[in-house]
Design goal:
This protein has helices at residues 3-6, 14-25, 29-34, 42-56, 61-65, 86-98, 116-124, 137-151, 205-208, 216-224, 244-253; strands spanning 67-70, 73-76, 106-110, 129-134, 163-166, 178-183, 229-238, 257-263, 269-276. It is an alpha/beta fold. The structure holds glutamine (GLN).
């Protein structure tokens, strides 16, 4: 069987099939496009067909390939972690606006998962001191591997490495305070029908579901953040399209000022940030 046979037909699944084929033959897109007459070995066909069967049963392409691009970096992913999403890149971009390249600030990423946020920030800001927390040891293994693979060989030489801690939100951090705290926590409501569709069916529920109204983690993080922010520090949280007002009022109650919400690429309110002007003493 040739590459051209495998990639003909059904447009809808063609991108998925091409990505799976690339991973089976171990060549990039350009090579696949330039070699339609390449005849696959039997073992390659078997592997490809096994992957395609799992894809047809719903397994996300990112889990089949074992990676997903985020912020121009290739992150390893497994079913232990949420698949990084384009809207979360906006959270990283907002954070980068707040931290200059020379700044030796401290940054905390809560619920780091694959490490996408923490590692992208460390990549762009080698002088920052980045701390990342997750409650799942399996997720932390993925994040740690990503940090080593992506950051140790970064161009321009040495920089800091993120430090990873296991635990529930701020718990493993004692009294530590940071210049910037950010999080893409679980924020989907437990009965949201969206959980029955597409990729999310295969993602870890603990990374998606934030209790009955989806706000459990956001309530916890926003209420506790002031104790872990230095004076003038900022909190940024990703949230559901309809949770902007709730996050704003939670931040107000917690003493934040300059509270704003930014939209995602589809125009939905997606990230809310606030500044803590006066530090809280622990
Ligand atoms: N944006 C994701 C979704 O809708 C949810 C991610 C999260 O809960 N942090 O599937």
């Amino acid at each position: 069987m040739k590459i051209s046979d495998l990639l003909s037909g059904d447009l809808e699944t063609r991108v998925d099939r091409r990505l799976l084929l690339e991973s089976v033959v171990g060549h990039p897109h350009e090579w696949i496009a330039a070699n339609p007459e390449y005849v696959l070995h039997e073992i390659e066909i078997d592997i490809y067909e096994a992957l395609l069967t799992r894809r047809m049963a719903g397994t996300p392409v990112a889990y089949l390939l074992g990676w997903r691009e985020f912020f121009g970096l290739e992150f390893s992913v497994s079913p232990a972690v949420l698949i990084p999403r384009p809207e979360t890149e906006l959270l990283v971009e907002w954070a980068l606006e707040l931290v200059a390249e020379k700044d030796e600030v401290t940054i905390l990423d809560l619920g780091t998962g694959s490490g996408a946020i923490a590692i992208s920030l460390q990549w762009k800001r080698p002088r920052a001191h980045v701390v990342a927390v997750d409650n799942s040891p399996d997720a932390l293994n993925v994040a740690q591997d990503n940090a080593e693979r992506l950051l140790e060989g970064r161009p321009g030489g040495a920089g800091n490495m993120p430090k990873f801690f296991k635990g529930h939100w701020f718990k493993p951090l004692g009294n530590q305070q940071f210049n910037l705290v950010l999080s893409n926590p679980p924020y989907v409501a437990a009965n949201d029908p969206h959980l029955e569709l597409g990729d999310v069916r295969f993602e870890p529920p603990g990374a998606l579901i934030g209790g009955v109204d989806g706000l459990d983690a956001l309530r916890d993080i926003i209420a506790t953040a002031p104790r872990h922010l230095l004076a003038g520090g900022t909190l940024l949280v990703e949230h559901g399209f309809d949770q902007g007002p709730a996050c704003q009022s939670l931040m107000e109650k917690a003493g934040f000022e300059q509270i704003t919400t930014r939209p995602d690429l589809a125009g939905h309110p997606r990230i809310t940030g606030g500044r803590l002007i006066h530090a809280t003493t622990n």
